[in-house]
From TrEMBL:
Residues 350-451, 474-593 form the Cyclic nucleotide-binding domain. Keywords: 4Fe-4S, Electron transport, Iron, Iron-sulfur, Metal-binding, Transport. PROSITE patterns: 4FE4S_FER_1, 4FE4S_FER_2, CNMP_BINDING_2, CNMP_BINDING_3. The keyword Electron transport applies. This is Cyclic nucleotide-binding domain-containing protein. The lineage of its organism: Bacteria, Pseudomonadati, Pseudomonadota, Alphaproteobacteria, Sphingomonadales. It comes from Novosphingobium album. Pfam families: cNMP_binding, Fer4_11, Pyr_redox_3. InterPro entries: 4Fe4S_Fe-S-bd, 4Fe4S_Fe_S_CS, cNMP-bd_CS, cNMP-bd_dom, cNMP-bd_dom_sf, FAD/NAD-bd_sf, RmlC-like_jellyroll, RnfB_subfamily.
Amino acid sequence: MRLAIVGSGPAGLSAAGRAAQLGMSHVLIEKTAHLSDTIYKYQKGKHVMATPATLVLRSDLAFDAGKREAILGIWDDQAAGLAIHVRYNAEVTAIEGEEGAFTLKLKGGGTIVAEAVILAIGTQGNPNRLRCPGADMPHIQYQLDDPTEYIDEHITVIGSGDAGIENALGLAADPAQGNIVTILNRSADFARAKKANVELLQEAGAAGRIIVRTETSPAEVRAGELVLDTRDGQETIPCDRIIARTGSAPPRAFVEACGIAFTSPEREAFPVLSPVFETTRPGIHVIGALAGYPLIKHCMNQGYDVVEFLNGNTTLKPADEPILAEKFAPLPGNRSVEEWLDLFGSRIEIFKELSPLQLRELMLDSRVKSFTKGQAVFERNAPGSSLFAIANGSVLVEVDKDDPGKVVPIAEGSIFGEVGLISGRRRGATIRAAEDLIVVELSRTAALKLIATAPPAARAVNRIAIERQLLQIFGSGLTTEDVAELVDGATVEEKRAGAVVLKEGDEGNDIYIVRRGSMIVERNIAGKEVFLSYLPAGSYVGEMAVIDGSRRSATVRAAIRSEVIRLPGDAFVRLLDRKPELKRKTLGAMEKRREVNDFIEGRKENFSSVVDMYSQTAQFLVDNGIGEATDVLLIDETLCVGCDNCERACADSHDGLSRLDREAGTTYAHLHVPTSCRHCEHPHCMADCPPNAIRRGVDGEVFIDDTCIGCGNCQRNCPYGVIRMDSVPPKKPSLLSWLFLGKGPGPGEPPKLWRKKHAEGVESPKRAIKCDMCAGIEGGPSCVRACPTGAAIRVSPEGFLTVTRLGEDA
């Protein structure tokens, strides 16, 4: 036998079809009683996509977008027509021998001898299991065959990839079934899923057919209910059934037993492959999902190509070759596609452990650019959330907006733009080519997918981001070499809302940087927790106990769902010993914290009121999400006279559409928090904005530009109800147009009122409306400027605590 093809999914079936067409002796080995178990196990009625649309299909079997049942029927007919030799109900348990004489052992006895082996077994049979208390409960399933089987159930789908989204959509397709369907995504982005699926999910969420919960993960599975870890703490929801679609991993034990090496030790890693799909064991080739290519069209092309290679076709290029050749053509150097891919893969750190196949797929979703020395890649404050990787040359970062001569170099192989990728902020600095430069620009979607699916890339991005955050926080002229030991020992930990990071009285061995979210610092006095301070993202804590060897002087807990970077304390102490300036700054910060402790100690005579005030302040922060804000509008109710000048001024500054509701919102002590945007550190509204219309301005303001299409995703994603959809008001005409042509609205006539008066029944396009902190308006926020009594103020969360404390002291 010339070829033994293991697995009859799209890749294996296509390989067998090519072998049959070429007259090569072959056998297609399938452990089930039907072809293509991968597609067979899709839920009934599933619409199968044929992406990417630009990629030409190479296969002797047809494939186009359509229903699961129709595709399976076509393949059955074509397999019979091609006379593919299939052996059903045959499971390979071992592969022995060598190239030219392999022996495949089958479960239950029997063997197959072949000169070459093609493994197309996929990863579907090895799903990632839930890892939380109750993960062995009987109502958890990892496969959905028929969504119409379930009636009147609370069903939770866990998983943000295509399979999870498609399962949720199928379960919610028929309202008559009465299912309440919830889908959980631990992050804010659906990075693993196809754009079309994400859009369908968003539509279903907007229509109320599916409850879409982002930044949420399972904490505990119980009978009839599910405990969730959410951004603001734990929550319990009814749950009769869980469909867990959290991905799958290669059947590593079997593959390694065949003598095949993997790219890394991670569970999600893929086999090491040559450009012709050959593994580290000569004669055994791997294609399809097991090679890291999950898309059907890619898999079928690989099946065709690998048989052509084995048949002696040495000139065949991959089907994506013309696309990549066109993409690389403008680059200097006159290299071939293979040479460019080799250069990118060998030089760029985040690509180094990707297989050539994975790299090709990534390049299809990326752009490549060249710049001459001195040319700007992007300017300070420019919008952008893409990630750049340096393939050739280096760049200079202009760290001081007032002095372009102050620069920091970033070398070949590294990345930049990660701040915009992670936070959505505008570009924080101008970056120029230090020499002739070639970069790969990954779109936000492509970068997030790479990080989510390639552990080595995630580690590289994470290391670089940690290194740069340390340099930014500690300053003092530190270099990457200075913080290398800290970076090597750093770990990133996720903390749910309310989780304790440091506990008062414990020994202190490590330091923590608040990477995302915020922390509340408390101290126990006579059995009660006294609020001390608030720590926003970018702060660090824990150094006091590390430096002076004392126990933790306070408890630090997450105000909202947060991420912290844990740094080894002994490495930090050694850094301080080497850097006197950093040590001086750190000791100064410690002294300020001791002053806060002394303030509390000095108020013991009024202990009860002090405890109540600070405990209530901390709880208010947690309950109302102010801990993730960067700018909060407050109204001092002891000064407010209810004139509504703030609302009117806001409307006058924004075409008659006010961005705030003074009377709505919550109140703590003498301070009222009206319904107005808080400009979160990591804005929820930015997630799933199709035109990328939501951006962050130079002063930290989150605003929506004119590319808004009115989809309403931001309104649904905002947990604070500060975004609304409203009709776009007409622009005010010139005075002459209003006076002589009757065009309106005119002077003193708010556009919204004019529209109601003159355009009743006329459907106007809608767009998202929210506070933009009066960006571009001289003098700052108009609501604050218009307040006659000084009752309206805008502060950061730290300032909120100060204002609250002063008010109580008064």
